[in-house]
Amino acid sequence: MERRLAVIDCGSNSFRLVVFTYTDTWWKRTDEIHEAVRVGEGLEASGALQPAPMERALETLELYAHFCSATGIDEIRPVATSAIRDASNQAEFLAAARERSGLSVEVLPGPAEARYGYLAAVNTTTLSDGVVLDLGGGSMQLTRVADRAAVDARSWPLGAVRMTERFNPGKRKRTEALRQHIATELASAPWLGEDGRLVAVGGTVRNLAAAAQLAAGMPSYGIQGYRVSRDALGDLIDRFSSGPPADVPGIKYARGDLILAGAIVIDGVLEAGGFDAFEATEAGLREGVFFERLYPGALSSDVRRDAVRNLASQYDADFAHSEHVARLSLEIWDALRAQGLHAGDDAERELVWAAAMLHDIGVAVDYDDHHKHSRYLILNAGLPGFSPRETALIGQAARYHRKGTPSLGEFEPEMRRGDAALLNRLAACVRLAEQLERSRDQTVHACEVVVLDGTAELRLRASGDTRIARWAAQRQGDLFKRAFDRELSVV
Amino acid sequence: MERRLAVIDCGSNSFRLVVFTYTDTWWKRTDEIHEAVRVGEGLEASGALQPAPMERALETLELYAHFCSATGIDEIRPVATSAIRDASNQAEFLAAARERSGLSVEVLPGPAEARYGYLAAVNTTTLSDGVVLDLGGGSMQLTRVADRAAVDARSWPLGAVRMTERFNPGKRKRTEALRQHIATELASAPWLGEDGRLVAVGGTVRNLAAAAQLAAGMPSYGIQGYRVSRDALGDLIDRFSSGPPADVPGIKYARGDLILAGAIVIDGVLEAGGFDAFEATEAGLREGVFFERLYPGALSSDVRRDAVRNLASQYDADFAHSEHVARLSLEIWDALRAQGLHAGDDAERELVWAAAMLHDIGVAVDYDDHHKHSRYLILNAGLPGFSPRETALIGQAARYHRKGTPSLGEFEPEMRRGDAALLNRLAACVRLAEQLERSRDQTVHACEVVVLDGTAELRLRASGDTRIARWAAQRQGDLFKRAFDRELSVV
Question: What is the SS3 assignment for B364?
Answer without folding.
Answer: helix
